[in-house]
Structure formats: C-alpha cells, structure tokens
Amino acid sequence: MSAVNRVIKNTGILYVRMGVTVFISLYSTRLILGALGVEDFGIFNVVAGAISMLTFLNNAMATATQRFMSYAEGAGDLSKSKNIYNVSVVLHLLIAILVFVLLEGAGHFLFDGILKISPERLFAARWVFQCMIVSTLFTIISVPDDAVLNAHENMLAFAVISTIDALFKLSIALFISYATPYDKLMTYGFLSALSAIILLIIRRVYCHRKYTETRINFKQHFDKKLFQQMYSFGGWSFFGASSSMISNYGQSILLNSFFGTKVNAAQGVANQVSGQLGAFASTMQKALNPMIAKSEGAGNRQLMLKATMTGSRISFFLLLFFFIPTLIEMPYIFDLWLKNVPEFAVIFCRLLLVRNLVDQLFYNLNSAISAEGNIKKFQIFEAILWLIPVIVSYFLFVQGYGPTTIYFLFIVYSVTAGLNKLYFSKLNLGLSFRTFANDVIIRCICSFVTVAVISVIPVYFLPASLFRLVVVIVLSSISFFLTLLIFGLKKDEKSLIFNYLKKFSS
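Request: output the structure for the sequence above.
Response:
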C-alpha cells in the first residue's frame, strides 16, 4: 500500500471514530455542566486544567518518541526500534517522577491563595487535583506505547481505544447526573482518573502482545548513546511543551484570579467545543505525522515537505467546514446544547475557533521541524512567544480590561508563532516562503473569506431559529465544496479525490 493510500485509509478509520466520539463527548459535557452547576464545573476546569494542560507535555514527548520510532521504521531497523522503546520507557519514568514532584509542590501554592475557590469547596478541589495527578502519571508512562501505535500507523487500535474513552465519559456523566449519592465533583474527579488508568492499561497490554519491540529488556536494549540523543531531543521538546503548558494554564489562573470560577466555566465550555471540532483536523494530522517522519528517515525530504504543506491545507479545510456555521450560529447552538450557558462562553469560543484556524495553517510545520531533528533554537523561540500573551494580559487586566483580552492576544500570538515556524522551516528544511504562501496561506485565506461571506447572508434576512441554522449549514456546505474545487485544491489533489470517488462508487 502506498504512503498516500495509507494516509487515506487511516484518516477514514479515524473519522469513523470521530463520528461516534464527538457527539458523545458534547452530550457528556451538557450532562456534566447540568449535574455540577456552573461553579463546580468552573472549579473542575481550573483545577483539572492544571493537569489537562499536561496534554501539551504528553503530546510533545509522544512526538519526540514517535519521531525516533518512525525514523527507525522508515530506515527498516527493528533492532533500533527495540532500543528506542526501552530507552523511552526509562526516560518517561524519570519524567513522571519529576512531574509528580513539581505538581505536588505547585498544589500548595495553588490552593493557598492563588486560586479563587469558595472555602466550602476547597477540600473537593484538592481531591480532584490529586486524582488528576494520578491520571497524569499513568498518561506519561504510557507515552512509549502511544508512540509505537503511531509509528506503526495502527489507527484502528487508536480509534477503538478512543471510542471506549468516550463511552467511559458518557457513563460517568450519567452516573453523577442520576445515580451517585456522594459529592458530585469529587466523584467526577475520581472516576475520570480511574477511567484514564484503565484505558492506559488496555493500551499497554495490547502493544505488548502486538509488537515485538515493546518487550522490556533494559540489559540487552538500553543504549546510553541513544538515551543521550533522546534525552537531548526530548528535553528541548519538554522545554517547549512546558512553556505552552504554563502559558495555557496561566490563562486559566489569570481568568480565575481576576474574574472568578464562572468565567472558568465559560472557558471550559469553549475548550470543549474547540477540542471536539478541532479533532476532525487533528485526526488527519495523526494519520499524516508518521508519513512525515518516515519520509525524512528514508531520506526523502521532497516528499516530506509536500506531505507537510498538503496536510496543512487539507486540515485547515476540514476545520473550515465545521467552523464557519458554528461561528455564525454559535449563540443559537449553545442555547440548544446547554441548559445554562455561562456568560462569555460564546465570545470565548468564537475567538478560540479563530485562533485554531490560524494555528492550523502552520501546525504541520512542527512535525516537519521535529522530523529533521534540529529543534533547540526553534523551541527557545517558541517558549518565549508562548509566555508573552500571559504576561501582557496580566498588566492589561490590572488596568481594567475584560476577560476577552487574553483571547485576542493569543490570536496575535498564533500569527507570530506561525511565522516563527515558517522561518525555521526555511532555515532547517529549505522550505520556500513563496511556495508555502501560494500553496497554503493564500488558498486557505481566500477560501475562508469566500465561504464566510456567503454563509453569513441568511443572518441579515432570517431570525435565529432551527430553520436559519439549517440554511446556514446548507449554504456553507455548498460554497465550501465549490470553493475547494475552484481554487482551494491543487490539480493533482482534485484528480486523487475524483479517482477515489470513482473507486468507491464502482
């Protein structure tokens, strides 16, 4: 099977999974918000947010390990794959210990004056924090297995595990809504951690039985030189991811400190919507990233750059398809979805979706830079850029600016960070600015403007209603596909799509 066919097959598998999990997750959020109430939902998001921000850390470390795994796969070296896995297990055990110490230390500061939580809910908040720490440690330890699944492009296993995860979340939401006799916030924290642990055990057992390189034998397969290489690469990835984690959680802390837990509830709703809709694009990236790393490992830089630019454009279009009607009809959608819509939830979510679209233009450049391996200077610049919006927001909040300020600043950050990625892609990979601008930026921005202008027309002639929502969706879908055919896709991509449609229909 060719690399392109593999990407298409894996993307298809992951989209079937998305069709199941997105609606389950969004419905679960509705149940949880209703069961906990705005204040407890805000508490969970600001406390568990400290842990959920470690997703950035986990993804970065998984990317680092996957880069070495995929590189070895591309070179066809099974012995090196075994060494990489064993080294990564040791590396992530050390990281888990470090993170545990840091989180326990940070907890004392968070709950002794930084977070604004009512005294009667402080014990429950501390309990949730401890539950999330346990979940985080298991997540970090499981990174090598996650990297193996990605390196082997086993998206079916990933899809099954993700579906089980969504069903767990739905079961927990139903349980705390209708069955639990205990404190709902504490029960939710405990069961969330327990489900994460169960899923990670499932992943570990599956990988151990499926792939020979996952056998742990430190005496035979621990390579000190490889450990130093992975430590160096992973250390800089850790540095960049830690900055993003601090920045994102700093956003939650600032909003909580200046505006209280109700604004954190709005932030949690916005993050949930953004995460679920954005998963449609990240799904394709998950299928594409192994191809980028393997192409570089096989010495095919041209294919790697082509895959990077094509992936950036296609993933942007996938977001665009869902984001445009959501951006336009968000107030009505939120009223349908939630029993009690937190203040600022709509504006937060709109700004976050715009930021995600900007990020998407440059997102795959991260994978390309990581595949090449020279990431030290890139990560230093990334870390500096991550922290600027939080620092500036603090001073603006002191001056009396509103909570939306930080979201506007992060949009500016996304543009600046994208240019930084583009610069290092030129420096390290030889990527042409003009080629990237013509193939990705111009096509994507023109598509966005065209579809948005056409789709917003019904707003000026029809009142907010289910009928108008349907009209916007239909108009957006038609204009989206026409825009792609006219100037969104390149000629060879159109031919590839038409050929697959013919095969599917025959």
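The chain has a mean pLDDT of 77.
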